[in-house]
Design a protein that fits this description.
Glutaconate Coenzyme A-transferase, 23% helix, alpha/beta, eight-stranded mixed sheet, 7 helices
Amino acid sequence: MKNKVFSSFDEAVADISDGASIVTECWGLTGMSQNLIAAVKEKGVKDLTLITHNFIPLVFFGEGEIANLTILLPQLKKLITPVVGLQYLGAGAFVQEYVEKGLEVELTSHGTLASRLYAGAAGLGGIYNPVGVGTILEEGKEKREIDGKEFILEKPIRPDYAFIRAHKADKMGNLIYRGVYRADQPVMAMAARTTIAEVDEVVEIGEIDPEHVVTPSVFVDRIVKVPDDAFGSTKRIKEIIGKMGENELIRSLLFR
């Protein structure tokens, strides 16, 4: 049996080269593959295409507290996402200097992104989607009328790598998630050519009930256990949440 358990995040991303495409989730603190993101940052590969649901500078958690996706900005060639920044954080102004240097930003919607990933996973040629008709989202895309309604052809997304944040894996690579960890990560793992998962726990084969498996091992290539002191560990998240009540910006956002 192929060994899928890697001893470090640097080892797990060692073959990622310039020009690679990476899909990863970003819904708050718990769903991000922070250590894989940090490893790619350290590796220094360039001209990356990043696909994610939210591209937001979560600076209010404290510098060095999390490995946010935006640390990869200098290494990106293209960004595919529904959300670039948030209005109360200056919207997307933080990417402007990179756009001026050639960064391509492809805006989409959350549902469309999920559907394009599914199309890539299922081997479909694309999907006909009503979302975006009559807006800038239809520019340069094929349109078709079906049963009297207009649709845009959205092409499938098949990334080179998926970075997955799961709760538990067995040594074969079967994954289960916890709460908001899941989101669209199962379809990301299915769509990518190579899937790398960082997990809270690695158990022996047979310790996960087959009925509980969400992402089967056939879609997972590498696994790394998150150490207690690493980004996104349960211990570290609890510490960050404990500090959140002391942060004036967070308090103003939550309780205004």
